[in-house]
Every structure is written in C-alpha cells, then in structure tokens.
Design brief:
By secondary structure, the chain is α/β, with parallel strands linked by helices. It contains 19 helices and eight strands. The two termini are 32 Å apart.
C-alpha cells in the first residue's frame, strides 16, 4: 500500500506516546475482554460481524465476499479511512481508550516501530500456517524483540526506475527498457552511475529535470543503510556523532542537485508536473505506478526499467493487525491469515497492482504474467518480482526515526526546493535539529 511518509513525518512527534497509552489501558493479554470463544476458523455456528479498518486501496473488496461465501456465519464490515493519517489517528485513539478498534486494523510499515512498542495492545499472530510466508526482513518489521508477531504482511514496495522514454529520446539517451536498465548499470547499478546519467541528461539541454525530488531520491538511498540514524540495540540517536554514511549519501546527492526538478513529492506542483514534462525519472516502488498513472493520465512515454542503484530497495508496504481489545480475536486472526495468504495476495496484484510481500506469490502466474498498458505494456509482474528478490534488508527505524527523517527532508528541501541554504549550512541545521530530539 502506498505510504504517506510526507504526512507521517509531520505527525511523528504526536505518536511517541502510543506505547504509554496502550500500557495504561491494555489488559496486557491477547484474549478478548468479552465472550470471544471460537474454533479459530469462523465456523463455530455463531453469527458474527468482523470489522476491518483499512486506508487507501488494499484491494480486499472481492476477497471479503469470497470469505463470506466460505464462512456463512461471518459478515465483514469494511471501513476505509479517507487517508492513512485518519486511520492512524483512529487507531491511536482506540488504543488510548482501550476500546473502539476494529477487529482487524491495517497499518503502514512506517507505523510499526511505535506499534511494536505498544505490542500488548495486539494479539500474537504467530502460527504454523504463516511460517516462511514472508522474507525475514518483512517479518522482522512486525516482530517484537521477544518474538511476538503482531502483523501479517500485505503488500511491499520493491523499487525500480520509472522513466519517460520520450524525454530520454529528446536527450539522446536509449529508450528501450532493457537498454535503459543497462544504461544505469544493470546488475551493477550504483548511485554514482545514476547521477552520471542524470548529468548527461541535464547537459543535453532539454530544460527538464532528470529526477523529481532530491528528498525522494534520498529516501531510496538511505533505505539501503542498516541503521542510518539510531542504534538498533539501544535506540539511541547515532547520526550526530557517527553519521558518516548518511553524510556521504547526503553530499553525493546534493552534488548533483542541478539534475533535480526541485519539487517536493505530493505537493500541488509535483502533481501538476506530471502533465507538464516536469521530470524524466522517478524512483519507483510498485505502488508508485498507480500514482504515476493517475497523475499522468493522457501522457504518453512512461516506462519502467528493471534496475535499481545499489541492487535493491523497498519503500512502503503494510500489515494487518488484530487488536487485543476485540471480541472475536480468533475469528479475526483467521480472516487476517486468509487475506494475506499468497493466493489472495496474487489476486490483489492482478486486479489492483499492490505487489505482494508473500514469497510464494512471486511465482504465481497471476503475478508473473501481469503487464501494465500505461507503462508501454511493461511486464510489471516480472520486473517487481526481480526487484523484490533484490531486497535483502530494510533499515532500522527506532522511536526517533520519523522526526530525524523529517529533519533530513527539510535539510534537503532547503537546498533543492527553497534554495535558501547550501549543502554544508543545511547539514549543520539538520544536526542542530536532531540534537534537540535528545
């Protein structure tokens, strides 16, 4: 599911109290507070309603009907928040109150660090039926230090490079997706090579930005560091005193800021730029294809290259969680298990384009055969399966991650978008902001 990191960054300071709220209000048990007895499969004979709260588009509508047909005693009440921010706020309120949560709650991957701290508020979803369902890095995102699994993975965000073939042609660059992949280095693609191509594009004098946003590119770069900002063992902030790796990426990116379209992702100007030849490339997780196709409706030339600098990267993805305050926990766990099984994940990708995080789904014919007409009939199933296979880790995100990433986005924006600072002075302001976090 598409992440809304731009909004999450802004709200970061308001969610650090989730764990404390849950600790105060939770019973500290995974059992429901009322009569929630069941056989775990939803076939106890009792007619019940299960509420499922999601946001954006999880692609579950047809699956709900299928599950109800398989379990005649279960009715699914689907609730979809207008935005992920609304969904997050509702979940936070329910955890604080100790009531009001849906039987199943969807959560973005970027919420998981705080929710793991609030693990007493959720049922343990560990089960033999899901052993090996996801790669280790996906499972770890929803697992507490003591081994409690609080979330079943839905989609993922393996990244490729989306590009405008017509703008590449105008700059004298290859346009065929396989040739473009090789242009960026193929299996040996690096960020250095990516920026070299950008310099070449910019030097051609088209007047078009090579990439859309420097902050968005940095997101792809920093996602390849194991622990960019905090110590995974202590959660202490490390980037101030030991941030050489982060600083190196920052310097490398901003040395090539002239290749940027100088936009902030998700802004009105960014949305409009899709219709005005505003930029030639984007780092492109699978869910971003839906955003591009919507914003660039009627614009020809978009394609996808099966390549990513540094080998692999994941941006985004979601989970289903079962709050411990629910009245039908076992039935909810069974539904969440079924909704996130590889068979269902493949159906969602075929219909909605949300790329599955489930390992077995990668070889499902519904996944491997999928193409996308908007992207010049690109074999999106195979491309993103290849990109998914290249993801070996995701960065550690501790309790300070969102505030630090927000400070970093502001630092890059001062140079790239606002043009009020040079790279050195903006880095100093970044460190000052991080120090204030304690």
């Amino acid at each position: 599911m598409r992440t809304t990191t731009r909004k999450m960054w802004a709200a970061a300071a308001g969610v650090t109290g989730i764990a404390l709220l849950v600790a105060a209000c939770s019973s500290g048990t995974d059992e429901p507070s009322g009569d929630g007895s069941s056989n775990g499969g939803g076939d106890s004979g009792e007619k019940i309603t299960l509420t499922v709260s999601t946001f954006n588009e999880f692609g579950f509508a047809d699956l709900y009907k299928e599950y109800e047909d398989l379990h005649p005693n279960i009715t699914i009440d689907a609730k979809k928040a207008a935005t992920s921010d609304d969904a997050r706020a509702a979940l936070t309120t329910a955890l604080s109150a100790g009531s009001g949560a849906a039987d199943i709650e969807a959560a973005d991957v970027d919420w998981m660090p705080e929710l793991i701290e609030a693990a007493d508020g959720f049922a343990d979803l560990s089960s033999d039926s899901v052993e090996g369902r996801w790669p280790d890095w996906k499972t770890q995102q929803a697992t507490t230090p003591d081994g409690k699994l609080i979330g079943y993975g839905t989609d993922s965000g393996p990244e490729a490079i989306c590009y405008r073939s017509d703008l590449f042609e105008a700059a004298g660059l290859p346009t065929d997706r396989d040739e473009v992949a090789q242009l960026f280095g193929g299996d040996d693609a690096t960020w250095e090579k990516f920026f070299q191509v950008g310099d070449q594009f910019t030097a051609a004098g088209t007047g078009v930005g090579f990439f859309d946003s420097a902050a968005a590119v940095f997101q792809g770069m920093v996602n390849q560091l194991d622990a960019p900002y905090e110590d995974p063992q202590t959660d202490e902030i490390t980037v101030v005193d030991d941030g050489a790796d982060v600083k190196a990426l920052y310097d490398q990116l901003l040395a090539h800021v002239d290749s940027s379209a100088h936009l902030t992702q998700w802004s009105d100007d960014w949305n409009a730029a899709f219709q005005s030849d505003g930029f030639a490339t984007m780092l492109c997780p699978a869910w971003m294809t839906q955003i591009i196709a919507g914003n660039a409706d009627g614009v020809d030339g978009w394609d996808i290259a099966d390549v990513f600098p540094g080998g692999g990267g994941n941006w985004g993805g979601s989970f289903l969680l079962v709050p411990a305050q629910g009245q039908h926990i076992e039935e909810a766990k069974a539904l969440a298990d079924w909704l996130t099984a590889p068979e269902q994940a493949a159906k969602v990708f075929a219909t909605y384009g949300n790329f599955p995080s489930q390992v077995e789904a990668q070889t499902d014919s519904q996944v491997t055969s999928k193409t996308d007409a908007f992207f010049n009939d690109a074999p999106t199933g195979q491309i993103f399966a290849n990109r998914f296979a290249g993801v070996t880790m995701t960065p550690y995100k501790g309790s300070h991650y969102f505030a630090i990433q927000n400070a970093m986005a502001q630092a890059i924006g001062r140079v790239d978008v606002d043009k009020t600072d040079d790279a050195a002075s903006s880095w100093t302001k970044f460190l000052d902001a991080v120090r204030q976090l304690g």
